[in-house]
Amino acid sequence: MSTDTKQDYAVIGHSVPKIDAREKVTGTAKYTADLKFPNMLYGKILTSPHAHARILSIDTSEAEKIPGVKAVVTHKDAPTLKYGISPARWDENIFCIDKVRFVGDKVAAVACVDEETCYKALAAIKVEYEVLPAVLDPLHATDEDQPQIHDEFPRNINAEIHQNFGDVDEAFRRAHYVRTDTFVGNRTYQTPLEPHTATSMWEGDKLTVYSSTQSPHYFQYYIAREFGLPMGNVRVLKTYVGGGFGGKLEPTGLEFAGAVLARITGRPVKMFYDRAEMFAHNRGRHRQYMTLTTGVDENGKILGVHADFIMDGGAYTSLGIATAYYAGAMLTLTYEFDNFRFDMLRVYTNLPACGAQRGHGAPQPRYAFEAHLDNIAKDLGIDPIEIRIRNARRPNTVTPNEFKVNSCELRACLEKAREISGWREKKGKLPKGRGIGVATGSFVSGAGYPIYRTDLPHAAAMIKVGEDGTSATLYTGAVDIGQGSDTVLCQMAAEAMGYTYEQMKIVAADTETTPHDFGAYASRQTLMSGAAVRQAGEEVKRQLLETAAEMLDFPPEQLDVRAGRVFAKDNPETTLTFGEVARRHFVTKGPLVGKGSYTPPKLGGTFKGAPVGTSPAYSFAAQVSEVEIDEETGEIKVLDVWDVHDCGTVINPSLLHAQVHGALFMGMGEAIWEEVKFDGNGRILNANLSEYRLPTALDMPRVHSELVESYDPAGPWGVKEVGEGATLPTMGCFRNAIFDAMGVSVDSLPLSYEKVWRALKEKREREAAG
Amino acid sequence: MQAIADRQGVKRYVIDLTVNGDPHTIVVKANTLLVNVLRDELDLTGTKKGCELGDCGSCTVLLDGKPVDACLVLAVEADGHDIVTIEGVAEHGELDRLQRSFIDNAAVQCGYCTPGMILSAKALLTRNPHPTELEVRQAIAGNLCRCTGYVNIVKAILAAADGSAPQTAAASASAATATTNAAGVTAGLGEEAR
Q1: B95–chain A nearest CA distance, Å
Q2: How many Cα atoms sit within 13 Å of A693 on the Cβ side?
Q3: Which residues of chain A have pLDDT under 50?
């Protein structure tokens, strides 16, 4: 495997422009909401105004009388099978039947000739509710006197996890020092710029859904299940997707309600969320309450860790059972220790359901752990980078929860971050109000097990070379939501075939025309989809060289092909073009097609929840940031961030660094400003983009993105992930920089100016009193 | 502006717009938004809708050369005015230097903010051909991007302003690093912004 680590690649490793860049800069790229179909109707969903209420009656008669209203549907018109990520926790209906469980829960839907008529129709639907007391505080959700949200889940416990590896109690007894800290994470929202849209249409028994989705296959699976259709009769495809970040990974009411409305009206129906509806649908980051206890020896070497968490899941499971497991499981990756206990309670509340947001479950616990570790380092008088280097995971090791780590250059990341940030010159020597902090992170390069129980391969690909050899088309189920997978997969296809990137075309993410792939989540596509693409490309190459061998009367093993040129290895003068050989192949043998598929090896242990967090390969990163705090106002100015990543072989350096920039930006938003806030009735107070504060171009610090040499044998050409991993260290890194600057710890996210100001005020009061 | 009342007495207005140089006469309601005229009536869907509240800037177009959120402009207010959408930026299939620079500097990810970003940047470079980095950041502060952290967008606009929008800026930056697999990219807010 390692033979190709140092090769000079013709296509991969180069910053080719994005394959779809021209369409995107000229406005010709069509997103789902840009599509129009003849006779198309517009649809909207009526949602609950109450956090918790019994539905007594729904009267749609007045709405139906409005001219232009073509259909009004409720649970009576739709399948009533419950859905969700895992059968044990299928808890959500297309439309609520007896109760609504959060402000925004789906009650009814309309299809009308235009958008304006939709709003008139929604206003004319009369729903009679009996308002029930709501559960809004996750810390009291399990109390005996709290209302029951789902009958099947007593005391509002959605999931309870208890994992125990080694002997944590014994490790604490042996420890030189044991410390406990508690931190709180914030509810944030993925906030893709493109609102969710789905346009559904039926031809006979076949349903087609254009959707802004991260996983057409998962949508196909769930829609087929809900409507009792064979999967072959459900086609889900996407055009361009305007960002996802986890928020477009599972079907919404738009796909389900749209399918119902399209069937009843016999017309295409375009369903769409507005910005406030996106916030209400949510599926963003959970709020987590995280207590960490760690025992270390006198050198700061970690002996054992106990993570005790409570997670506010909102009204439904969504993807949250995976989030709950990830929250603890991923804590074992960055530092080596043998003893680990993880206790988690995911509770239901009458708030919007939470799910998978970039870094899935891991970023908040990572913030907590990195802050906790800095507290320990300070107590023991050890430099924060030094304590991390002492504990950093090494390559070819196994975590206590049985994740096998092949490549790991975390130590090199930390050392490089220390060097490029000028840490030694700055730590303890910065002027008043300035501080420097460090944190690390690690993430999966694809989940080791499928998103639902199935024996399908995780990824598959086909390559069809054009008849005259002037182009080749990659067919992949992989989903480009902006991160650039279409580009890097075409680079990988061209490299494997011996072709050029410029001649590649791609058809992607259409369940009917492209082979199955689980889609864009868990940072899986470069490694997993890439492995399938490489195999397909190599199959093309093998056939091409056989045909070339016949043409040249050479043994095929003496030939090679690179960048569109077939040549004899011993005699580079003997050449043919890829195109002429491909054409010959088509004439004499038929289509030149290659196919590939990828299934990860069996990974992980056998304990309950063991699959979550397994992956063929893990990325590692260290970040250092320098901040300046205004003591009067608590204002945080982030001056510089240095990110050093171990992400294996790089296919497209400029797209890779762009992923780091974006992940860091999201981490920064979550760290300082972003938080979904609710009033006392469970209504969102800031469901818009001015009060839910995304960082603007004026808020970004200087970003320095660097890499360390790395190669993972599990990935094609040695690749690993980058897209989510860079979100992980940021929150802890900023907290630690503030801690360094002012000596105050902000123990809840976001690390808002107000919280910093309060922490400083309390510190002054303590000092004055003491 | 000519008004026509329908049978319910709701008035419609006849407006004249010049969009990307083409004249259009359209009948709209008093509350019809410019963004909906562009997208639904003229099929110019390059103008995106992200919030319909003027918060995100995805629907930025140029109204007589000035960047505006098309979701905050009533169609009747645009009567008689000159509008440029993203579809009007490239001429005869030839990309504008800003578009070229966005491609070369890897400033495009999901692409949803891109049309608005390019138009805000275009308005800036028209009135200020050599902006500082801070001026670039101020000019796009009303355009939210969720993918890029603005790093490469700012780089792309500054490169286009230099007139040097290099054909292979991204490629040459990486050429030296592709084989070492240890590329370093440093970008961000320059000193003048502090």
Answers
A1: 8
A2: 13
A3: 1-6
